[in-house]
UniProtKB/TrEMBL annotation:
Record's bilayer topology term: Single-pass type I membrane protein
Assigned GO CC terms: plasma membrane
Main location: membrane
Domain Nicastrin small lobe: 21-200
Biological process annotations from GO: Notch receptor processing; Notch signaling pathway; protein processing
UniProt cross-references to CDD domains, sorted A to Z: M28_Nicastrin
Name under which the protein is recorded: Nicastrin
UniProt key word Signal: yes
Species, as recorded: Salmo trutta
Length: 674
């Protein structure tokens, strides 16, 4: 019976398996995102060919509600808000990714404006991007709430025996639904049903409170905090169990962010927004490895890759909180200075720009240290094809993790970016900020192995930036100047079986998840975090002679310690004329540090100091296409069904009342006596 029902369902529905939904997020004050009704939303498909076509689903069409199918070029705030305001006639929206528009940013014009350093108390003239609008292309679409489902439909979506579903969706529309001479075609019509019902409503405080109510032995959470792990590594490791201030220790922090977002969170790519920065820092860390081992600088260097920064600086605010509360291996007083790498892949010329905080520089000591850091950076570009240019003192810092450190303490620092004022990134926090945006393309005749060896122009450009950053960090940490010219990043350097060049493939199709996601169980991180952790370990660690079993339990050996180092078993490369990989154990100072907002540890779900973003739970995500009959035919079918039901009831009643007549046994005649 189950197989029969499945067979019937397959004949009725075409399942859309490769879809990405818009989901609901919540913070201390409100909710954003999309959802369907609990039973899913169904509508007649209408393919939007231009903005003028909106008149049909929003007013003229005789068969509402409509499921609007549109190409990404029509996925604009103007069109989406018109459909939002007429949501009674719109059952949902399906976006088909196509060619990139000239510009598109669904983020806000002033990212993280309420959780940075510039507030009414720090310098009200610089608050809320009053002097510099960093993302003027931002339309805020990602921060709107829609009471209908919105899905992204992949072009490569296929189902068994049905061919390409995207083609089927459009052909189904043209066969059954397309408007001809102002009127629709006859029934049956092609319809779509979307399921994306969200559990959480209102705000984070409400959903966390509901999730804490224990109606059973296993309460159901209706929302989960956003978060993951930061990736950290010192060039000279500290005991991982000894928290708090380190006497006579001074640390230069080199930082970048890992995450990005888009309207469809799982479509986040962030090639310019985040990947360009953390790839550059990875390359700089590798370039510094040999120099810092041969001639260790007087100051330590911390490489910090922050996660969740898009959502009100989750990762950096957590590190600052831990430093302030003696929950990290150093504290804020150990931090000498900060160099953060932002968006660096889309230059408008040969210059990259050095941003600093004008408020903290009013202190002469801070100003002198920042000036020295600027000199170290500018002198490090000798022999390279670009220059570092300092921006004006009156301009505030762009959105950056550095701002969270400044909220706690005045620290000298520089934020490095490819923009002097507004972002060069035309696709900030959108699914168009991908490999094509950075021209990360390869000749079509190259094999995957050859692509790893091929150096794109973008790779060359970021390698030069990494070289300059590595040299500047070495100088800032008090390194010997005689070593500086030996510090060079190489996009094709292979270290411990990993090709550094593969990092530039992060924004190719099927990349890791750049959206931070929800906080997971202890010692569980998302794929991007693990990827960066292992890459950093291989680029900065040391190969050992430990066996695989020793690598898993190094504390059993006299000269090894998991308090000081992490140990990873690496598959290694396949040598020439061999089919076996040369595996080995890597000793590294790379650690993962919790990147969940302190607000959830403190139970302060309405915090104005820390991020309060959560993601709603849901039952399931599903989309399917089917043919729907006319209302008249449905009512006729219902009427016939009801008539058959009552007729069967009457027949049953008649039969049951006359059963003694209809089913009485024939009596045998009495036996005669002879």
């Amino acid at each position: 019976l189950a197989n029969f029902s499945n067979s019937v369902a397959q004949k009725i529905y075409v399942e859309l398996n490769n879809t990405v939904p818009c989901v609901r997020l919540l913070n201390a004050t409100h909710q954003i995102g999309c959802q369907s009704s609990i039973s899913g939303d169904t509508g007649v498909i209408h393919v939007l060919e231009s903005e003028a076509d909106l008149e049909w689903p929003l007013s003229k069409g005789p068969n509402p509600p409509y499921m609007v199918l549109l190409e990404s070029s029509l996925f604009t705030k103007s069109i989406m808000m018109k459909m939002k305001n007429a949501s009674s006639r719109v059952a949902g929206v399906v976006v088909v990714p196509k060619t990139s528009p000239p510009e598109f940013s669904p983020h806000t014009t002033c990212p993280n404006e309420n959780t940075g350093v510039y507030t009414e108390t720090y310098d009200h003239n610089l608050a809320h991007c009053n002097t510099t609008v960093w993302n003027p292309r931002g339309n805020g679409l990602s921060y709107e709430e829609f009471d209908f489902p919105v899905f992204s439909l992949k072009e490569d979506n296929e189902t068994e025996n049905r061919g390409d579903v995207l083609f089927y969706s459009i052909s189904c529309y043209f066969d059954h639904n397309r408007v001809v001479n102002g009127s629709g075609l006859q029934y049956p019509l092609c319809a779509m049903q979307l399921f994306s019902h969200m559990y959480a409503v209102t705000d984070t405080a409400t959903c966390m409170r509901r999730g804490s109510i224990d109606f059973s032995t296993s309460p159901v959470m209706v929302c989960n905090p956003l978060g993951d792990y930061n990736v950290c590594a010192f060039i000279r490791p500290y005991n991982s169990t000894a928290f708090g201030h380190k006497e006579n220790e001074s640390v230069v922090v080199a930082a970048a962010r890992l995450d990005s977002r888009a309207f469809f969170l799982q479509d986040s790519t962030g090639a310019e927004g985040s990947v360009s920065g953390f790839v550059t820092l990875l390359a700089a860390a590798q370039a510094l490895r040999e120099a810092t081992q041969e001639a260790p600088p007087t100051r330590n260097i911390l490489f910090a890759f922050f996660h969740g920064e898009v959502f009100d600086y989750i990762g950096s605010s957590r590190m600052v909180y831990d430093m302030k509360n003696n929950k990290f291996v150093i504290d804020l007083d150990n931090v000498h200075s900060i160099l953060e790498i932002g968006q660096v892949a889309v230059r408008s010329g040969t210059n990259l720009f050095l941003h600093s905080d004008p408020v903290s520089r009013r202190n002469n000591t801070i100003h002198d240290e920042v000036t020295n850091l600027v000199k170290n950076l500018q002198s490090s570009t000798a022999g390279l094809n670009f220059s570092f240019v300092e921006t004006g003192f009156s301009q505030p810092l762009p959105p950056s993790s550095f701002q969270r450190f400044l909220r706690a303490r005045a620290i000298p620092g520089i934020f490095l970016a490819d923009h002097q004022t507004a972002f060069n990134n035309r696709y900030y926090e959108s699914f168009y900020d991908d490999a094509a945006h950075l021209n990360l393309t390869y000749p079509s005749n190259l094999s995957p192995e050859e692509q790893l060896e091929f150096v794109t122009d973008t790779a060359k450009s970021l390698t030069e930036v990494a070289t300059a950053v590595a040299r500047a960090l070495f100088k800032q940490a008090g390194g010997n100047n005689s070593q500086v010219n030996n510090i060079n990043a190489d996009p094709k350097t292979k270290v411990f079986g990993f090709s550094f060049h593969c990092v530039f493939c992060l924004s190719e199709p099927n990349p890791p998840q750049y959206y931070v996601g929800v906080a997971k169980l202890p010692h569980q991180a998302n794929a991007l975090t693990y990827l960066v952790q292992y890459l950093l370990a291989n680029l900065t660690g040391t190969a050992t002679n430990l066996t695989q079993s020793q690598c898993k339990k190094p504390d059993e050996l006299p000269n090894e310690s998991t308090y000081m180092y992490s140990y990873f078993w690496v598959q290694g490369m396949v040598p020439p004329n061999s089919t076996q990989r040369e595996s080995f154990c890597v000793r590294t100072a790379v650690r993962l540090a919790k990147a969940v907002s302190p607000a959830f540890d403190l139970g302060d779900y309405v915090s104005k100091e820390y991020s309060t973003w959560t993601e709603s739970q849901w039952t399931f995500i599903k989309a399917r296409i089917f043919l729907v009959a006319s209302r008249d035919l449905e009512m006729l079918t219902l009427g016939v069904g009801v008539a058959v039901l009552f007729t069967s009831l009457l027949v049953t009643y008649f039969v049951s009342t006359k059963a003694d007549v209809l089913f009485s046994a024939v009596r045998e005649p009495n036996n005669g006596a002879y």
